[in-house]
Specification:
About 60% of the residues lie in helices and about 5% in strands.
Length: about 120
């Protein structure tokens, strides 16, 4: 009886490990397929003319640089980072960093309500 129960516990542990390994392998295979598909789409972007690339916020060198990366890296993620950083370049104006707005205390100790304009004590 002890032999049977240890065989069952061993097989459960083995099946659990097999499941984890298989799941991890499927996730990696899915990422690889997505990367290869995105690489093919970025190759199609390389066929666009410079004006069309500029309209979407990219340059030819951006696309070529993304395609020059490792075959296992996703070039669309690289281009997404580039387009996100330089979003103002396509529109022809300089991209600005967002500025933080800080609420300053009123100088006279009295603040005005934004919607009504009535004065309320600070």
């Amino acid at each position: 009886m002890i032999v049977l129960s240890s065989a069952l516990s061993f097989s459960r542990a083995t099946l659990g490990n097999l499941h984890r390994v298989t799941s991890a392998g499927l996730v990696r295979a899915g990422k690889l397929v997505r990367t290869l598909r995105n690489r093919n789409e970025v190759r199609q972007l390389a066929e666009l003319d410079d004006r069309s690339l500029k309209d979407i916020g990219l340059t030819r060198s951006d696309v070529q640089g993304a395609l020059a990366a490792s075959l296992l890296s996703d070039p669309s993620l690289i281009l997404g980072d580039i387009a996100g950083m330089d979003h103002g370049r396509a529109a022809g104006h300089v991209a600005r960093r967002p500025t933080a707005m800080v609420a300053l205390p009123p100088e006279d100790g009295v603040r005005k309500g934004a919607a009504t304009g009535r004065i309320a004590p600070a």
